[in-house]
Every structure is written in C-alpha cells, then in structure tokens.
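Handover notes (outgoing to incoming on-call)

Open items:
1. SHSP domain-containing protein: sequence verified, structure written out, both below. Nothing else pending on this one.
2. Nothing else urgent.
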Amino acid sequence: MALIPSSFFGGRRGNIFDPFSLDIWDPLQDFPFTGGALSVPRSEFASDTAAVANTRIDWKETPEAHVFKADLPGLKKEEVKVEVEEGRVLQISGERNKEKEEKNDRWHRVERSSGRFLRRFRLPENAKVDQVRAAMENGVLTLTVPKEEVKKPEVKAIDISG
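SHSP domain-containing protein structure tokens:
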C-alpha cells in the first residue's frame, strides 16, 4: 500500500530513492496561458523560467571590492551581457540556445536549461560603478566592482587648559 497515490505524480513513478526518477509536479501544467504577455507556448515559458531560476550567482564583499561569480557553463563571453543601469543596478543577461534536435534522435532525459536569463543586483552606495571589470573563464563569469575607499574621520587632539 502506497502512502502517496501514483496519480499525485501524474501516474509515473520510479525508484523513490532516486531524486531524478520522479517527474516533478507542475501546478501550472494545465493552466491555459492565453492573451497578453503569457501567450507563449507552455514549454517555451517553462524553459525561460527555468533558465532564469538556474543562473547561480555568488556575491561576496572584500575590503576592496564587491565580487560576483556566475556559473554559465557552455556559454561564450559573446553570449553574455553585463550592464549597469539606473546608476546602481548591475544586470547580467544572456541566452543559452537549445540543442538542435535531429529527426532520428530519441531523448531519454532533458535536464539542462536553455533560453534567456536575467539577474539584477542593486549595488551599494560605495560601489564604483564606472570601474566594473568582467572576466569569463571555464564557464564562470567573474565581475569585480571596486569600492570607494572609506575615509577615516580626521581626529584632532584638543589641548585642555587649566
């Protein structure tokens, strides 16, 4: 007797100990996207959403700079765009193209995301947005945003009379 009905997983169930054997339930699977901005085909919409969600980025702050590292495997630097907009918003965008399908190909699993991606970060006041540096190596985009030097307050000793 199963505690979770197989219909919960769309009638398809594999080994419960293998996280990749179960199809993920999509609550919007049967939702009709009609009209407006959501009039794209369902699979294209899901692909774009997955690409945005799967762009992993780390942001650390060192004494000298803010450093961003984005995992973008399989992308060339020409396929990635880095911009600073509205003064302090760092934007990383690009597109990962879908692999061309041949007529005789039989796919068993498609897990790599494709489509457009876009991530935005509001930079703090101490960021030197006009000096952003970007480098791409082995599918990792590294952005370095230098920080303004913190001016130490000038302390003046006052002699006490008396």
